């Protein structure tokens, strides 16, 4: 299949080769006003994600309960239209984010390659491995954050805010009880993430050291391979141990999040079921709320994942900026 060429976004040149002072300044320099457009699309995705909750409630309480076939058909068509429009908006958002990210990565690789080439004589052989690591894999992680650095928190926080607002306005008691199950995530995740960030920073530093040591090897020329390989093997062992603890913390945090997310629908069923039995709420509201908390668990996970990615990108930006200076 022949692929047509997609033109990359070209950041405006500032004439200053120094790194951006912060991660957020870097994102703005790489994408500029495109971030505003991306965020507007993200807001529309968030709003469209909550509309089906009210449609579900009306389908159960107004159409199905009253056996109104015409209303059922109308609401079903509206529901389908909303889902299709949201899917199209999501697709547009993802492509836009990907375009900005890949454009930033392309620009950064060209820029850093030029800076390294111009200063090549002063770096020495030991810097070769580090430069390859930075221009190859590290800048990809940093540049990849440009596209969704602002839009992802907007769309996910928007879905949480609109969803919580809708549920509290419709049935305050059920909404507030369900929300209580989400609060521990906000308190616990930053504590665990700090430990993960430390592991990431140490891993990047050690990976650079191993890359530098590997670049100093001369296959077939060095007599004492063991002496040269010992520090490399120690570094590899450290990377293994670092990665295992990273997995323990990362998946432990995910398990905790999934457990807490599962408690919210249970709260809705118990409290909502009690109120429904007493005639103080409707089945349609319970159905909409269970669906709502299910929808909210995804943006909650995405926000926590975003928090982790932002912290990692900040570490990456700081270390690359240090290398550039």
Automatic annotation (TrEMBL):
Pfam families: ABC_membrane (PF00664). Its main location: membrane. This is ABC transmembrane type-1 domain-containing protein. GO terms for cellular component: plasma membrane. GO terms for molecular function: ABC-type transporter activity; ATP binding. InterPro entries: ABC1_TM_dom, ABC1_TM_sf. SUPFAM superfamilies: ABC transporter transmembrane region. It comes from Thalassospira xianhensis MCCC 1A02616. The chain crosses the membrane at residues 32-51, 71-89, 256-277. It is found in: Cell membrane.
């Amino acid at each position: 299949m022949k692929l047509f060429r997609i033109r990359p976004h070209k950041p405006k040149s500032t004439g200053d080769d120094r790194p951006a002072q912060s991660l957020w300044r870097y994102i703005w320099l790489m994408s500029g006003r495109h971030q505003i457009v991306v965020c507007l699309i993200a807001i529309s995705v968030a709003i469209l994600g909550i509309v089906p909750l009210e449609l579900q409630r009306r389908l159960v309480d107004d159409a199905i309960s009253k056996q109104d076939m015409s209303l059922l058909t109308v609401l079903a068509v509206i529901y389908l239209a909303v889902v299709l429009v949201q899917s199209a908006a999501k697709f547009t958002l993802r492509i836009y984010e990907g375009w900005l990210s890949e454009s930033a990565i392309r620009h950064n690789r060209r820029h850093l390659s030029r800076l390294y080439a111009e200063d090549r004589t002063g770096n020495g052989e030991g810097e070769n491995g580090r430069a390859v690591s930075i221009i190859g894999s590290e800048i990809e992680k940093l540049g990849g954050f440009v596209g969704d650095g602002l839009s992802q928190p907007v769309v996910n926080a928007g879905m949480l805010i609109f969803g919580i607002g809708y549920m509290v306005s419709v049935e305050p008691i059920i909404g507030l009880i369900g929300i209580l199950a989400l609060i521990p995530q906000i308190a616990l995740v930053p504590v665990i993430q700090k430990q993960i960030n430390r592991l990431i920073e140490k891993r990047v530093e050690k990976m650079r050291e191993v890359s530098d040591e590997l670049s100093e090897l001369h296959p077939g020329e060095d007599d004492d391979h063991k002496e040269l390989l010992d520090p490399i093997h120690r570094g590899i062992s450290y990377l293994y141990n670092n990665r295992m603890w990273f997995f323990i913390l990362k998946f432990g945090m995910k398990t905790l999040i999934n457990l807490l997310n599962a408690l919210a629908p249970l709260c809705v069923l118990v409290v909502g079921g009690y109120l429904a039995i007493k005639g103080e709420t409707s089945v349609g509201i319970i159905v909409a709320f269970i669906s709502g908390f299910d929808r909210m668990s995804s943006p909650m996970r995405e926000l926590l994942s975003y928090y982790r990615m932002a912290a990692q990108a900040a570490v990456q930006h700081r270390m690359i900026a240090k290398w550039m200076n």
